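Listing S7. Sequence submitted for prediction.
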Amino acid sequence: MRKLFISMLMLVASTSLFAQERPFSVEAGWLHSNVSAEGSLKLDGAYAGLNYAFDISDEKGFYFTPGLLLEYQKSTTYRNKSKDYSYYYDEFALNIPLMIGYKVNLGSDTDTRFFVNAGPLFYFGFVGDLNYKTLSSGNKVRVNLYKMDEYLVGSKMGRIDIQIGANTGVDFGGWLKVLVGCDYGLVNRMRVDGTNARTFRFYVGGGFCF
C-alpha cells in the first residue's frame, strides 16, 4: 500500500510538472487591418497557426515565442461613383512573429497567468487580388496586385511587410489562453510614387496549449 501511495504521488507530481510545460499552442482568431494611404483600405478576416514558447532566463517568467500564422482577409465591396462596377480586395498571407514574452501568476494559489508579448513580425503575401464585377454584364475579373498590370499601372501592392507588434492576455491553467493584440507595419505596402501606405492590425484570439 505504501509503495502504491508513493507511486501515485510521483505520478501526480510528474503530471503537475508536465502541466506547467506545454510550449506549443494552436491559435486562431478574428483579424482587422487598415492599410492607410490617400484613402483607407479596411480588411476583415481570420488567422490560425502554431506558436512555440521556451524560457530564456533562469528565473521563470521571460520566454521567447516564435510562430507561423496563416491569414485570410477581405475588404468590403465598393462601388465606383458611376455605379457601373463593384470591386473588393482579398489577401492570403503568412505571418511569422518573433516575440519576447513575460508571464506572471495571478495569485499564489492559481495556475491562471497574465502574459504580455512584444516584438517583430515578418509578413509575406501569397495572394493579393483586386476583384472586379461589371454590374451591367456580370463579368468578373481578378487582378493580382502583386504584379504590375498595364491597365493598373501604379497600383502594385507589396508582398512583404515588417511589423512591430504586441499582445496581452490570460493563460488558464496552461491549457487555454485568450489574447488581444495589435501590429504596425514599417514598410510602405503600396508601390506608388509619393504614396506611403502603412498597415495597422488589430486582432482577438484564443489558443489551446499542448
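Caption to Listing S7: primary sequence and predicted C-alpha cells for the chain studied. Residues 1-20 have pLDDT under 50 and may be disordered. The radius of gyration is 23 Å.
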